[in-house]
Design brief:
Blueprint lengths: L5 H14 L5 H11 L1 H22 L9
Helix pairs in contact: 2-3
Length: 67
């Protein structure tokens, strides 16, 4: 059985929360910006950039459009 790294566990949790369509992710963004704007924003930005690079590397299409 493969054990998940802490990073993989966090990724699963974030993915599950964001995929919940009952969650207003725009409001989440507002609250995150109010909490610790510079640190939180920069780390989310780094995570987003890594996601974009990885999706391009593995050929993931989003909404039937290739980025």
């Amino acid at each position: 059985m493969k054990y998940m790294t802490d990073e993989e566990k966090v990724a699963v949790k974030i993915s599950n929360m964001i995929c919940d369509l009952r969650l207003d992710i725009e409001r989440v963004g507002i609250y995150l910006a109010r909490m610790r704007p510079s640190t939180t924003f920069r780390r989310v930005e780094i995570m987003t950039e890594a996601m974009q690079e990885e999706s391009n590397d593995v050929g993931i299409t989003i909404h039937n459009y290739r980025e």
